[in-house]
Amino acid sequence: MAEKNTDEGMNNINIEKAGNSASVFQYEAVIGLETHVELSTATKMFCGCRLSFGAAPNSFTCPVCLGHPGSLPVVNEKAIHYAVKIALALNCRINENPVFHRKNYFYPDMPKNYQISQYDCPVGTGGFLDVEMGDYVRRVKITRVHIEEDTGKLIHTGTSGRISESDSSIVDFNRAGTPLVEIVTEPDIRSAAEAKEYMINLRNLLLYLEVSDCNMEEGSLRCDANISVRAASANEFGTKTEIKNLNSFRFLQRGLEYETKRQAELLKSGQKVIQQTRHYDNLTDTTKALRTKEEAHDYRYFPDPDLVPVQLDRKTVEDIRASIPELPFEKLKRFVNSFGLPAYDARFLSSDKNTAAFFEQCMRLSKNAKALSNWIMGDFSALLNRDAVDISSSKISPAGMVKLIEIVDSGRVSLNIARSVFEEMFNTGTDPEKIIEKRGLEQISDLKVLESFVQKVLDENPGPVAQYQSGKEKALGFLIGRVMALSGGKANPKLVNVIIIEKLNNIYKSGL
Prior knowledge:
With about 500 residues, the chain is an alpha+beta fold. Helices cover about 40% and strands about 20% of the residues. It has 15 helices and 15 strands. The strands form three sheets. Strands 1, 2, 3, 6, 7, 10, 11, 12, 13 and 14 form a ten-stranded mixed sheet that branches. Strands 5-4-15 form a three-stranded antiparallel sheet, with no helix packed on it. A two-stranded antiparallel sheet has the order 8-9.
């Protein structure tokens, strides 16, 4: 989809000058994101240690990932293929000879005192990801996709687990050496809302590729944001800050919103923004300075002498390209074109791989795409969220889902009763036919029985009948509701509606 930049995509902030409401400063956010993705390989990036989230501290380490003298790294081939897969899905050019560099800095969680990463020869460059924002599309250009190894994990002792309130810090090196892919964007994002939507789209794409579980709570998907603010009419970028600790979509948006406002207020008051790394504190919903921001030359990059350049021949790249499945935006278009779904429905269904798979399994048994979409987006999603269950683990089968919709369409049960049946199906996995039979829920469609219900309700409710006679059509809903209650909810609502209107019109004509 082509890029369309509009004013709606700009995060323009109006700040009034104190004492002069007529003087308004308008600012625009300029945002670039750096996303770290832990790859779902069996072993670490440069050694044979198993990946082991949640294992006892320092139980999965070896001389290589601990940086012992004389130990030599060996590249994880699967991690290379996963990185190429990500780069291709993001429309990047693939570098046939990516080079590993040493990024030199000192921190307690990094045992070698350097990180093996990639600098000027990454896996992929020059890609993009289109992000739909309602009435416009933001094309976010991808600067680079490169591979590196993760660091260890610092554990801060104390009641809160926060470094500022801890008595001491201990380090767990289990995570050190885990293969990471870093995805760096151009500063193309113009609002906190766009940044959040970009991350949601990126996560969905990565899950489709099956290269990472993208669990933000466990740290397998992490994001740092670079943000500057400038006058809305300016062409030059302002001084940027980097925000750390953005480990949820909500924190990403809230942190960027705060930092945008903070920088705009500094500029309005004539102060300068200092280039620094800042930490987002979700307890106070603010960002706090950590340190001055490093530049690339501070890391003293140089090619790792223990690792030769990787060679990606054209056949390998094309084989990886062929393994890429239909991606979310492609599936969205197909759902609209093939099944006639509204774009909103198609976007919801295609955003999650398992939801899309369930819908397509249902469509092999049914032609009622819109009814299926309504059930999945409505009752099904509500129950899945209630019990924190993924649709692939649900007790609802595609066949059971389709059968219930067919029962509703045939008029055998009302929609309200069907919802009750669906919840029991969700809880027990029981076939809808058996639930309806066991509970005696089949809809009453016998005209004589329905006419007797209607007549009884009209006889017992002369007030609403008179209201309907005087033109108050809302009274009709009350009377229909009374019929449904009298039938225990089993009366066919369409037939009740026809019968009751016919009788009410007859009453009106006869003057009764």
